[in-house]
TrEMBL record:
The chain crosses the membrane at residues 12-37, 49-67, 79-99, 105-123. This is Uncharacterized protein. Keywords: Membrane, Transmembrane, Transmembrane helix. It comes from Zhongshania aliphaticivorans.
């Protein structure tokens, strides 16, 4: 955590990543699903679940923005983000492996795993 300004910018970027994903799910779900190679799965039955997921992604984005104000003070949110992003990555790839889910979603969540690795660096840091 030597460069606190860099880490603050990183968490702002993390927040913007989540905000972008959440707004895409809420505002342009057709485009979002097409990007993920899941366009044929966007049905009226999926929409409530998509909205719930988008809401959670949005809330985590607000958490990352809060972390950007003082990463060391908000390590609990950093830990939740690390776990949450790792779980999203893992479940996506389990769905791909076991249920023939489209690869597009798996490609997107590689970013979540990368974020999780950087979150772990901050979470394990001893600097205040």
């Amino acid at each position: 955590m030597k460069n606190k300004r860099m880490w603050r910018g990183f968490f702002q970027f993390s927040a913007i990543f989540n905000f972008s994903a959440a707004f895409a799910m809420l505002i342009i779900p057709g485009v979002f699903f097409d990007l993920l190679m899941m366009g044929d799965t966007l049905t009226k039955e999926v929409m409530p679940w998509l909205h719930q997921f988008a809401g959670l992604v949005l809330v985590f984005g607000f958490g990352y923005w809060l972390v950007s104000t003082n990463p060391m003070m908000h390590k609990d949110i950093v830990w939740m983000g690390c776990v949450g992003k790792t779980v999203v990555f893992s479940l996506a790839w389990i769905d791909i492996a076991l249920f023939d889910a489209p690869i597009g979603f798996g490609i997107l969540v590689v970013a979540d795993l990368i974020f999780a690795m950087f979150f772990a660096v901050v979470w394990r840091s001893k600097e205040a």
